[in-house]
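User: Please predict the structure of the protein below. I'd like the answer in structure-token form so I can feed it into my own downstream comparison script.

Assistant: Understood. Taking the following sequence of 118 residues as input:
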Amino acid sequence: MAREFGGEPSAEAISRLPRYAFVGQVTDRGTVSAPFAIGGIRVEDALGFEGDHEGVDALRVASAQATRRRTPGEAIDHLETLDETILAALGELTAGSKSDRRSTGEYRSGTRLGGSGS
């Protein structure tokens, strides 16, 4: 991993990272960032201690109220038509703007909606 970051931070430094500490790097518009530190926390520290069964039950109830439950068959049926639904919505968003290059369905990668690359 140290080689991927160009030697900095060193392999020794990476191997000494404490638990829930990571080194990351991002690419923004083709430019790779310098490596940076990312810190995490334990789920228990964020949501309460491991023995908080009432909190877990309350979270389960809140989740059930906020989300629609589907059978596996309903979920599969939804996924089968999801690509077409997304493409139709994108087409509606871009239909009114002829001056915008993306309104023709082109993306930066050169691919086109509903077709092969241009």
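That's the full token string. The longest helix spans residues 72-94.
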